[in-house]
Every structure is written in structure tokens, then in C-alpha cells.
Amino acid sequence: MKKLFTLLVIIVITGSVFSQSPQKMSYQAVVRNASGVLVTNQIVGLRISILRGTPTGTVVYQETYNPKPQTNTNGLLTVEIGSGTASIGTFSSIEWATGPYYLKTETDPTGGTSYTISGTSQLLSVPYALHSKTAAALTVAYPETDPVFEVHPASGVTTALIGNWNTAYSWGNHAGLYRPVSYVPAWAEVTGKPVFATVATSGNYNDLINKPAPYVAGAGIAISGSTISANLSLQVSTDGDLLTLTPGNSVYVPGISNANSPVPIVTSKAVTNITATKAYGSGNVLFYGATAITETGICWSLNQPPTVADSYVVSGVYDGDFICVLDGLTANTIYFARAYAKTAGNAYYGETVMFTTSDIIPIPTLTTTEVSGITETTALSGGYISADGGSAVTARGVCWSTSPAPTTASSKTTNGTGNGLFTSVMTGLTLNTKYYVRAYATNANGTNYGPELFFKTAGILPTVTTDVPAAVTAGTATLGGNVTAQGSTAVTDRGVCLSTSANPTISDLKVASGTGIGSFSTSNAKLKPNTSYYVRAYATNSVGTSYGQNQQLTTLDAYYESFETDFPGGSTGAWGIITGDAVEGYFFLYSNQDGAMAILTRTLLNPGQISYWSRNYHSTINTGYHSNTIFYIDDIEQTLTNSSTWLQKSFPVTAGTHTFKWVLDETSGEAWVDYIIMPK
Asked: pLDDT at position 201, please?
């Protein structure tokens, strides 16, 4: 059972016993809701009842409060019992000596009259001080020192006087003089009745003259207008309930004044489904009144009481329950709202209810669909919106970018509105490019995004074939291929690549041979004698590199020198081995002194040819001068080279013993020699 949780209850009797001023009890309680959470800084609806005998006994007094009390920052509520608007009995008429009595509290934390939290506790010794007022008379003029009424006037009552009283009573029937306090005499029992026209004979209220104009008697009582000059209390039910009417107001008594209510009767209900920006207010039209209702709705404001001059929304319902959406609210804010009904241009209101918006702004919840159907310039994605965040989704789609965390400021699609699944087509993409994509959904509170995904657009590689190797020697071969299609973009590099393992790539030995499509060939490969190679043609565009099929070759057996270890003897002069931009491997033969010679003597068993690579460096100091490398076979000059880049030279040789010599000619220059090959 839901209860009013209190940490502290204090009841204090106020008012003077002697002067008989209104008695009150000061009441304090800490208020918590049904979940045990403190209700702080909030107007609450409160009804106090005093029950006699048991916790469920007869209600001898009941009251509510207007204005309604408000809790403080600690959830403490303070009221004075006896100062509220009584709906049952009067506080001053409670006979405290006939107890025990119980105090019942009923609370509506939303400030209305839907009392969802209640509790009952017994009133102990403190309230019985109210009963002590009856003993005060003993201490005024006749103290307790006169227990036999020697001083009191009653001491003068003699037996004779009592006899005279009994004789007087026998003169007639005086029963009417000794009725209970609650007895109401009939009109016929009243003596000395004034003449009220025909009312004496008709007994009809309508026959009275000079009746107050605003008061109408009939099936019930309804009072309106502004002519009441003083508060008026009328008995309106056989149970003794009192209805207090304040000047200038109208009153509705359920079950009594329904048919005679001149104005609409509307009530407010608690505000529900509260978010940061939206809530649902509701009301109920109980009765139309004398004039047709033209509009109903809910009005709200930061201040109370709200009116139709503040924010409001029309319901369109003129009878019974209605509900309205209060939109455009501010997060974490206290609002006051109430139902209203209009008739003949006037607005009539229900009670004010208070509510607080959430501090969390709700935006849609969604996911991003996996990317599919990827081409060079298009791709498919989308998303699924599982919740709109309390506000309709007005835009949805996907957004993408080449950078992470794309937003709706990036490229995007627009794919309708509302919740559920949607599909998006991304267009205008760049081929072979990585993109980031995520779904988005927008409602009145903002835009939210699904998880981020990434994908890469497609690209077409070139198509290339590999030629069969030709003219294979100990150190060279004619290699090539054919680019039959460029793919997505132009071919920027092509050639052959070689390795002693299958499927060589451009990370292995590579010999470039131009750009574009078509056939190509090269004989510039620096091969090792008596070695098996795998060869593949390659072609590269912006998408990547593609390869032709594997081809194989084996070079002829021969003697070769790459200077990776040492010059094989027979050298004279200032030639040496250094590392650098070698033709093959890491080392080559080097000299920078004029006349330096490198001599190599070999006996060849087979005829063939000798080849080597040569390069010269020309000093900028001696402009017009060049360093030359002169090559001799058996002291016969074969060629003079002065190329600043590596250049291959080849000469025929016969079987037999031969002397090969390289000589640096000219000063201020350098000569390089590498990768010497000759028959064995």
C-alpha cells in the first residue's frame, strides 16, 4: 500500500482557551513519493481528516487547503490543521474527550486532487489539551475551595424553589423548549412569525418578497456573479456538509447543482509522459453550463495560474475527457498547467497542476546499414530508426566523407521521414577511395547519428600479358609484355619484374619500360649468369598494379664480377672498391686519379662476348674537360666512354687467354666500372 513517508511530525495547539479564539494544530511532515524520493519545492494537494474510534472510523472533520501548500528544499511540508477549507464538520466542534482520534493525511504530489499517497496515525496526548478548555471555568470566580457551593449562586437553590419549578412545569407542555441542539423546528412551531405575503400559507420559497437576486433555488444551489457582499455558508446535503461560497465566484456541487450550473465545469488532470520538450496534459468537461462550449484545451506557463493569454493548445473535444500535447517546452523547467473551456468568449478553468520537464533532450535512436553494392562511383547503405525520441522524425538518410565522423554538413542523402528502415544510394563517389558513412535522423530536438562504417570504392586495374623471354645471355635477355587495357585510369608505369621465386612483384628486381597501353620490351635487366628467373610483366594505374602471367628463363653460364667481395687481382693504380649506386648489388670499382688502371686476365674456354657497365663523373671546376674511361682487350683500345649515367658496353672475344684493362683518362674526374661478364 502506498503511504505518506514522514521523518518528523510536530503538532502544536494554538489559540486561547479563555477567549475561545479558533483552535488549530500545527502539522509538519517530510513528503516522499511512492518510490521513496523526496518531493521538494513542489506544490502538493493535501487533504486532512480526523477520524474517531479507529483508523477507519467515522470522519468527524475533513479539510483541504487553498492556496495549496508547498514543500521546501528538504521536502518539509507545513500546514495548520483547522485553517483549511472544511468539507466535513467544524474543527471547533470536535469533542476531544470522546476519542481516541486518528489523523489521516492524503497527498497528491502533482498538486491535484488525485490523492495517491495516504497514511493514518493516532493522535495521542497533545490534542487533548483542546479539551482542557472546559475546565477553565473552575478557576474564574469560584475556585475549587468551594466544593459544596457555599459561594456559588447555586447555594441559594432550596428545596422549596425546586418544588416551585416542578409546579410551574406542570402548567403546560414545554417539550419544545427542551429539544436537542441539532433539532430544527418546523415553521408551524415558530411563534410570532412575520407576515411574508403568501408564504405563510403556500410554504414556497418563490413566494418570499425581496429575495436576493443572484440566489436561485431549485434542484440544487448555484450562485454566481459579483453581488455577494459577504461569505455565505449554506447547508447543501442531508449529511450536514457545509459549502462556503466566496464573493464573486461560482460553485458546482456534484449531484446537486448539475442542471443549474450557469457556466462550464472543467477539471484538470495530472500531466503525463513528460520529456525535456514535450508533455501530455488532460482535462474533463463535466457540464456545459448555460451556453454552448466553443473551445477546450490546456494552457500552461512558468507562473501560476496559467491562462489562455499564456501558451495553450486546443483539444477540439467539447464533452468528457480530452488530452493535448504540450510541445516546445524547455528542459529541466517547472511549469504550471490547467484545463480550460470557453463559452461566449469567456474562459473557465480547472485546478492548476505542476510538472517539471526532464533534463535529457530526446533525439532519435538509430543504426547504420552495412554498405553493399560498391562500384567505382556508387554504393548502397541506409539505416533503421527504432525510436523517434518523442518527436516525429522530419529528415533521415546517410552522410559520408573521406574523413571520419561525417555530418549532415557533408555529402548526404534524404530518404523521407518517420521511424523504421530506409535505404540510401550514395552517388558521385571517387573510384578507389576510402569513405566513412553513418545514418542520421532529425527531430524537433536535434540530429542523431548511427554507428560509423567505412568502405572503399571499386577500381579497375590494367590488363597486361608477359612475353616469352628472348635473346638470353649470361647477363641479359630481351623481356617485355603488352598492356591490353588501362583499367579505370591511365597506365603511369609498366615493365617487367624478376625474381628467383615465382610471382615476382615490383618490390623485386624491376625494369621499367614507359607508360600507357600497348606492347613494350627491354634488354636492360642485370641478370646473373647460370641463374633461373621468373619474369612477369606489370602495369600500374591509380587503382594499383596488375601483373601478367609468369614466364621463366635461365641465363648462360659465364664468369662475372660484381665486386661484392673484392677485385679479383691484377689491378694496378688507384682503383678501389666502394659502395653506392651500383648496377647490381652494392659495390663497384672506382678511381679518381688520372692514368689509374684496372687489369683483369682470364683464360676463356669458349668464344663469346665480354660486357661491362661504365659511368663517369665530370668535375664542374674544369668546364670543357671530361673524364674518360678507355677499355682495352690485349692492349688494343676498344672504346672510350664518358657517360654520366651507367652505360653497358659489349665486345666479342675468342677462346684463349686475354687481358682486359680499364684506364681513367683526364684529371678532375671519376670513373666507375661494374658488373663485368665474360664466357668461361
From this structure: 58
What is the rounded distance in angstroms from the CA atom of residue 536 to the CA atom of residue 407?
Answer: 46
Tell me which amino acid residue 524 is.
N
- Give the tens place of pLDDT for each residue, 376-434: 899 999 999 999 987 899 999 999 999 999 999 999 999 999 999 999 999 999 988 99
CB neighbour list of residue 1: distance below 8 Å, 6 or more residues apart: none
- Sheet with 278-287, strands from edge to edge, namely 265-268, 278-287, 320-327
Distance of CA 194 to the CA centre of its chain: 78
Other C-beta atoms lying within 10 Å of the C-beta of residue 79:
20
Which of helix, strand or coil describes residue 21?
coil
d(CA 465, CA 338): 84
Residue 199's φ and ψ, nearest 5 degrees, are -60, -25
Q: Which one, of 50, 19, 210, lies nearest residue 123 by Cα?
A: 50
pLDDT value, residue 347: 93
For the segment 634-655, the average pLDDT, to the nearest whole number, is 92
Pick from 421, 434, 447: which is nearest to 379 by CA?
434
Q: What is the pLDDT of residues 342-376, one digit of tens each?
A: 988 899 999 999 999 988 778 999 999 999 999 98
End-to-end C-alpha distance for the chain, whole angstroms: 111
Contact residues for 369 (Cβ-Cβ < 8 A; gap 6+) = 381, 382, 383, 384, 423, 439
Nearest alpha carbon to residue 293 among 221, 237, 240, 347: 347
User: Rounded to two decimals, what is the model's pTM?
Assistant: 0.41
Phi, psi of 92 (to 5 degrees): -70, -20
Q: Which residues contact 28 (CB under 8 A, 6 or more apart)?
A: 8, 9, 10, 76, 77, 78
DSSP letter for 528, please.
P
User: Strand pairing partners for 423?
Assistant: 382
